[in-house]
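User: These chains co-purify. Model them together.
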Amino acid sequence: MAASQTGSSGRVTIRPHRSYRTLRVSQGSWIGTLATLPVGLAVAYTFLTLALPKATAAVFTWLSANTPLHTSVEDNFLWIGSTVPAPSLPPLSVVGALDVAGGCVALVIAIGLLRQNTPLALWFQANVIVLMFSALWAFFEGRVGYDGPTFMLLIERTSVIMILCSPVFAVIVSALLPFSSLERALMLVGLVAVGFVLALVRLAAFALLLTHFGVIAEANLYMFFGPLIDVVYFIVIYSLGVVSLSHRIARGEHVWDWL
Amino acid sequence: MGLALGLLQLFLVAVVALMALYTARHWIFTFSRVYGKQRMSFSDVYEEHPPEITILVPMHNEAAVAEACLDAILASDYPRELLRVIAIDDHSEDETVEILYAYAQHDPRVQVVEIDGPFRGKANALNVALAQVTSDLVLVFDADYTPGRGLIRTLINAFVDPEVGAVMGRVVPRNTSRSMLTRLLSMERAGGYQVDQQARYNFDLLPQYGGTVGGFRRRLLTDMGGFDQHSLAEDTELTAKIFRYGWKIVYDNRAECYEEVPETWQSRFKQLRRWSRGHNRVFWSHIIGLLQAPHLSIAQRVDAALLLLCYSVPPILIAGWLAALTMFLMGRLPYAGGITLAFCVVLYNAFGNFAPVYQVATAEVLDGSTTRLLLLPYLFYMFPFNSWSITSGFIDAFGDVFKSRRGHWDKTARVQETSA
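Assistant: Joint model of the two components:
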């Protein structure tokens, strides 16, 4: 808590030096944090049960009308229904795989010679290396990864799990700072909503990409643009909550405790 | 095939368990820093008769920053007659040595030591300079550091406790606004010091001596035979030795000192790679000794293991990720495996990264930051970068062991500061 006193020059607020600060949290805030988990899980699960079957069916209808993709599989993972697009993949060409592998090796060497260590360059290199592994695996084994429907089921089920995990994430991070009930609720709603939209976009985009590029692209899609990307929106929504909290503190809300 | 698949799955589970362990550790640390009882160092002690001290400033091609560093040290409020500064020129090829001699001519407190032997590197430079130190207490500042007027006195206070072997202050970047990288590094530093170091001190675990903005007893170094002159992480080595021999390290969160963080990705890559190489060598050399140290509690031994292992986590994570990729290519990554992988990457990025996002956010809130917190998602940008640079250093360290070679000191590039 900041100490306030009135002097000859008016009201003065004294705050602890940053190295001495700790935070004060009300009992209500603790209850709110703990309640986030069961409430959040119930909200996320109910929302998925109600919305996922209709939304995935709509995505499939749109794909059927606008693309050559016309088959789907019905899933009932964790008793949550969904219609998952099931692309039929172009046949794997062993010679084509060798071409891709050769191209990737050339790219890796070229990037290595440029000695670029920026995050984007490393991200690109990692993608190229995984693509090279996929192509080499396809060349030597004659097969790689999954058939179209199984891969799409893997994507859909991983998305469901990630959305159901968002309340756990919200509780873990929100317990560490004195978020208001509104901030906590918005964080939870944001996590579920963005995760849901991203899951639908991912289903449609991955189905289309697989139709064009075939099984060789599966590993890149799953390992780089699957659950790894979910981390980004998790942190974006969390950071919005923290910014709101920090502005509240800056406006003078008394949260600091003296040691 | 079945056995190989089973082993891959087992390994993946082990990696996730390790990430979960680091997650829990960082979360507990953050909770302690925010809501727990804060353990205070000796900052507020006022020593009426302060001891004689020597400040060592090792420099290699530091012409861009040498003057600012020496000016800041010499402007200290520490009694003039008790302060001695040894500026060490370690094979500089720029104007560093001329700058140092100019200071020595004008201020009797400054002494220049030139290293001209076959070895180069901070550990060797400190060993050479230590031979000329007469005071019992020694502080070390890197050349890019600019301490405030009262900092030396604040740090020295820790030694009123005779069990204290070393003291460490808080590092605060001063070139934060230069680029996205410097901003992100500033946030990482905040998480590392404001939360991590303070929490370790709160729990009486093992706060780390960071090699700068800190100091130690000369006697301690003499008893230990000085630094390993080939070490690339003399600070971690000293931390390990201090705890093995039963001394204590004080972390003083109030003792803030300003530094220049790397401004280019290339420079940061080299720095992390060197840290990782040196840190992993220390890990392999000292882990058994620390786990068997009779002075340490079980919690301190666990903390020692997790502290020293931290530069091995990215290569372990990459290995786990490759295991998942192999299962994927085999078409045998089960749903549970896919979900496990998802957890693994989330744990590392959100919780177990170099400075977990909630730890950084908490530190920034404590520091009074507001809109700057919108940069938090960009910490994800550091993920491939940190992972690969640390893994490169890990591979270097392995090479050092197998080829019996010595690492060379890759200096971090400095940029001329225009504003403090």
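The first strand of chain B starts at residue 53 and ends at 59.
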